[in-house]
Every structure is written in C-alpha cells, then in structure tokens.
Amino acid sequence: MFNNDSQRHATLRKAAGKFPRRHLALAASTLLALGLSLLFLPGENAEAKRTAIPLNLELTPVAAIENETEEDVAAAPPVKAPEPEWSKVEVRPGDSLSSIFSRANLTPQELHEVLTTAPKAKALNKIQPGQTIAFQVDDDGALSAMSYQVDKLQSLVFERGVAGFTTTEVREKPEVRQRVASATITTSLYRAANEAGVSQNIIMELANIFGGVLDFVYDVRKDDFFIVIYEELYLHGEKLGSGQILAAQYFNQGRSFQAYRYIDAEGEVDYFSETGESMRKAFLRAPLDFTRISSRFDPKRLHPVFKTVRPHRGVDYAAPRGTPVYAAGDGRVIKSGYSKPNGNYVFIKHGEAYITKYLHLHKRAVGQGERVRQRETIGWVGSTGYATGPHLHYEFLVNGVHRNPATIVDKLPPPTRVGKSEMPDFLAQISGLQLQLRTYAAQRNYAADSGQG
C-alpha cells in the first residue's frame, strides 16, 4: 500500500492534522496510562508472592490545563473557617456582672471595656435571675462578642470592633393569633375573666376601655356578661402572652356597650363604639379598679369616727392598702400634701370648671403643679387622716359645688368621635369584628335559653 516508510509517516502526519488538539491530548493521555500499566503487569516467570502496586492516576486533559485562567482560580469558593462556639451563662440569684464574667473566664478589664464603649450597655445593669448571657472568645481566649437576652423577643449583641464594642439590637417577630373569651359574672369581673382563662393584663385593659361608661365598682351586677376578642403572641410554638384587645362587648343590666380598636389616618390608636364615639370620656367613672364601694355620696351620713351627722360629699372606695389610685381625667395638680383630717391628699383641676379630690392616701406620687394624664397613678390607697381603714375618699366638684361622682359623668360634654371623612374606613375595619361579636352573643343566648349555659 505504501512504497516506503517515509511515505507512510507523511500520510499519518497528514491524517493527525485533521483532528482537534484536545482529541490528540486525550489520546496521548490514554496511551500514556496504558503504557504505564503494562510495565507493572507480571510476566510468566514472576514470583507468586509479588505485590501489585495500585495506581490511581487522575489525568487531566492537556487542553483543560491550557485553558484554565487566573479568573477560574479566583472564582473558586474560599474555604470558610468554622465560627467560634457560644458559651452560655445563666444568671443566678445574687449574681453581678463581675461574677458572671469570672465564671466565663473573662477579665474585669474586658467587662469594663464593654460597659464603657458599647452603646446600650447600661441594659446589662438590669440582669435578672433566669436570664442568659452568651460569650464568644477568639483563639487567644479574649472576648470577641457577647449576647444578652433582654426578654423572649429582644436580644442585644455586643461585638468587638476597631474602637471598642458595637451594639446590635435583635428583635424576633412573634406569631399573632386571635382568641375569643366570654364569661358571665357571678361575683366580680376579675374572677369571671380569670376563670375564663383571660390574663390579668387583658382584664385590666378591658376595665380601662369601658372605664368611661361603666364603674366596675358600682355598676357591675350578677349575671352581667362580656365577650372579648384579643390577640395572643407565640414564638416557636410557645405562648408569650397577650397582645391588643381588638373588640369587646359588655352586657350590663339590659344595656349593651361595644368597643372597637381603630387606627385613624394619623396612626393614632383608640377605642370607639359602633357609632364612632370614643370610649375615652373626659373622666373615669371610678379612679381605681376592681374594688367595692364602702360609702356612697350622702349629705346626711353619720361620720364613722365622730359619730355625728356630717355631709359626705364624695364616694369611699374600700381597697387594700397600696392599691393604685388614678387621675380621673387630664389636668394639673393644684394641691398635694398632708392634713390631719384628710391625711395624704391630692387635688386636681381639669380645665376651668372641674376639680377632683383624692383623700387618705398611703403615699402621693405627684406634686403640686405637675400635669397628669387620665389613668396616671397619682398615689396609693391608705388610711391616713380621719379614716377607720384603708380606703380612697373621692370627690368631684363642678364650679366649686360638690356633685355625685357616680352620676355627674353622664352630664358632662360628649366625647370625641371618628371624623366624618374617616367613618367609611372605620366601619370597614370593624365590620368583621362586629360579625364575630354578634355570632358569639347569639351562641351565648342560645345556650342560656336551652339551659346549657
């Protein structure tokens, strides 16, 4: 076929030139591997005990090596060093920051650096038993970061920076679930709500919302009924507590009061009736919560100390010593002091026409000239002055004339309302809650009529 060897070689070179370089490189690699393996094949006269040497050669095509660039090397993901572990220390009764740092094998100098350079480090002075503080140290054992869990939703993380420690506030967002509770009152609102599984915070807020239309000391009666729709907060399946009351209804002696939470166009939050009237009246019907009236307004009352007929120009609320006393409305403290008959007392002026008086306080929380807001604590129930036991004596004056605190509120100017332009939005916000209240009220009435409630 070929005349001589030179002609054969020339033909082979011409044929090889038709193949791409990468194919030739692969072929060369394959031949090389085959040749190496033949070198180690045992011959016929080889000893039976000769040990074979395994070869695990991973051959990279020549073309691939030639085409690899610096960009390819740079694009390779860097090897990440493992992050140092956090060690946790639980705060024990009697612990101080110094003792906690000592248990974590950290120095007083490191504690001083955190306290003097980290923003919000003052929060560490409020540590409580049961809380946890986590520490992270570097390879030399020096503090690099620490985390303080303020509560179940908030943590402060302090990290070492160039000029001391920085602070990052971490907040978790809880899951919000809606809950409905209802109860019939047999003895008191507090007991009925508590038996229905309603938290104390929700009970107090319920009284706050209806405090302008109901005196929960004087007005509450057996067989009153309430429904409350409110939020409960959960984190990772664990219940954290209660959120906001969304709507509530109270049935009192044939009357019904409804309240709905509404956020207006300016972002202000308040509670309104179904007609858009604010539940927040100018004055509370009672300046303290969940107590009982021991003496009502009576101009011909026999004085309990002097045993003489003296006008009783106010209402006495019997309550345990230390019960908070609230300002009945916004105003300015015109007197705050002590006298032999009144004991510790506070007088508040509301506008030009109204004055409220609070007597026999155990302690006073405000001084003369201070501005106060409705439901702000102004003192605590006591028995100072001419008093036979711990109670609050409460008076209400209109233009200098004593009026019955239990009835005067109804005769005062009406409260604010939802603006006319916002009424469509208000009604849209509360429509679903209205339906829920009607549904639960109907279920309760059906159960009561059928003897199930």
UniProtKB/TrEMBL annotation:
Q: Which residues form the signal peptide?
A: none
Q: Please give the name of this protein.
A: Peptidoglycan DD-metalloendopeptidase family protein
Q: Mind telling me which Pfam families this protein's record contains?
A: Csd3_N2, NMB0315_dom_I, Peptidase_M23
> According to its UniProt record, which cofactors does this protein need?
Zn(2+)
Q: Name one GO cellular component term.
A: cell envelope
Q: List keywords of the entry alphabetically.
A: Hydrolase, Metal-binding, Metalloprotease, Protease, Zinc
Q: Which GO terms describe its molecular function?
A: metal ion binding; metalloendopeptidase activity
State the organism of origin: Spongiibacter nanhainus
* LysM domain segment(s): 87-135
